[in-house]
Amino acid sequence: CPKCSKYPLINVKAFSNTTGDLQGFTGFSSGLNAIILSFRGSSNIANWIINLSFNQVAYSRCTNCKVHNGFQVGYNTVKASVISQIQALRALHRDAKIYITGHSLGGAIAVLAAPDVKDSFGSLIEVLTFGQPRVGNTEFANWYSGQFTNERVVHYGDIVPHIPPQANGFLHGGVEIWYDKAMQTYKTCQGDSTGCSNSLPATSLNTGDHSMDIYITLKVGSTWLQTFNNFMSFMGNL
């Protein structure tokens, strides 16, 4: 892992659920005085997209909210490990902030983990995802946007942020940071605004723009976004 030394974390511990193709880690950044919770995406994105269902289940934290059944089931398989590992880190770093990040499927799991982490520890600062699919319905998207500072980075024609489809009752919340093809410049939009990636025709959407290798090359002016991107690069090289 030659890149890992560039992004120093201590007390790093991984977790996984091989059945659901979920992986992630927790660790502490002394530079940020923060606990990092990072979820990795599917190892086979093409098969994952093909097999993705559009079923929703009720989400009890808000009225009329529903979330993707598969994402919720997947998160539940690693929930206990996530909370336990953060508890162990908080025992060592009591005043640490908590940041959550994830790529692809990992971005969806990050969204679902955020409310539990906030309820358990009360110090969640930021959720930032890369190439994240839609997680829930309109009510969930609106509720979530009011609860968290949530940005999701989208690389140009990445198809994953467009699934499950809006026509099937799914919607993004938070802020979209939409990068051009070369990952040099970006626009920001609220939710599923047509001003960002939703402005593209369906024929422009593809799996190639979803690659983590491309996401980690983005050019940014803000330190916090680069920091999160560094951690995703770290995750991709474990």
What would your notes on this structure say?
The chain is 32% helix and 25% strand. With 238 residues, it is α/β, with parallel strands linked by helices. The strands form two sheets. The protein has an eight-stranded mixed sheet with strand order 1-2-3-6-7-8-9-10, with helices on both faces. A two-stranded antiparallel sheet has the order 4-5. β4 and β5 form a beta hairpin. α2 (69-92) crosses α3. It is globular. The protein starts with 9 loop residues before the first strand and ends with a helix.
Label this structure with key terms.
25% strand, eight-stranded mixed beta sheet, 238 residues, 6 helices, 32% helix, two-stranded antiparallel sheet, alpha/beta
Per-chain topology:
Elements: E1 10-17, E2 22-29, E3 34-40, H1 45-50, E4 56-58, E5 66-68, H2 69-92, E6 97-103, H3 105-121, E7 124-130, H4 138-147, E8 150-155, E9 175-179, E10 186-190, H5 212-215, H6 223-236
Parallel strand pairs: 3-6, 6-7, 7-8, 8-9
Antiparallel strand pairs: 1-2, 2-3, 4-5, 9-10
